[in-house]
Design goal:
single chain, 42% helix, 3 helices, Glycoprotein, Type 4 Pilin, six-stranded antiparallel beta sheet, 148 residues, alpha+beta
């Protein structure tokens, strides 16, 4: 930069700083919603994997005992359990992304539900529940949630 008197100066003008802040703001406005959508889809995939793993355990139990396991036998607790972002069981409310429950005895339905008010429920309101039945039927708040 040149000053009017011919000497050079260091630094940025106010206009240059305003332009840089505006560009960063525009990029952030584009990136943050995209990132939130990516996180929501990733969390949904964790819940889908947990449901599939539990369905596999149910089928293995059925092959050995000729009946499906109860919720307490399969989930370790009749009330179900929650999964965190890594797919691990958790009892810490702040870490849970979906709560997993099971209904039925002769047939079962496994359901993953995003807790009300959770970050997952806010990021992904169209896919609050995902279900997988003994017959392999996959249902959700909206059909596109399973990615079919």
């Amino acid at each position: 930069m040149q000053r009017h008197n011919g000497t050079s100066s260091r630094g940025f003008t106010l206009m240059e700083l305003i332009a840089a802040v505006a560009i960063v703001g525009i990029l952030a406005a584009i990136a943050v919603p995209s990132y939130s959508g990516f996180v929501a889809r990733g969390n949904r995939a964790v819940a889908q994997r947990a449901l599939s793993e539990l369905a596999t355990l149910q089928e293995q139990y059925f092959l050995r005992h000729r009946r499906y396991a109860t919720a307490a036998q399969l989930l370790g607790d009749s009330a179900g359990y929650s999964v965190d972002r890594r797919g691990n069981r958790t009892t810490v409310t702040a870490n849970q992304i979906y709560a997993i429950t099971m209904t039925g005895t002769n047939n079962y339905v496994l359901t993953a539900t995003a807790p009300t008010g959770s970050s997952q429920a806010k990021r992904d309101p169209d896919c609050l529940t995902l279900s997988l039945s003994a017959t392999g039927t996959r249902t959700a708040t909206k059909p596109a949630c399973w990615g079919d």
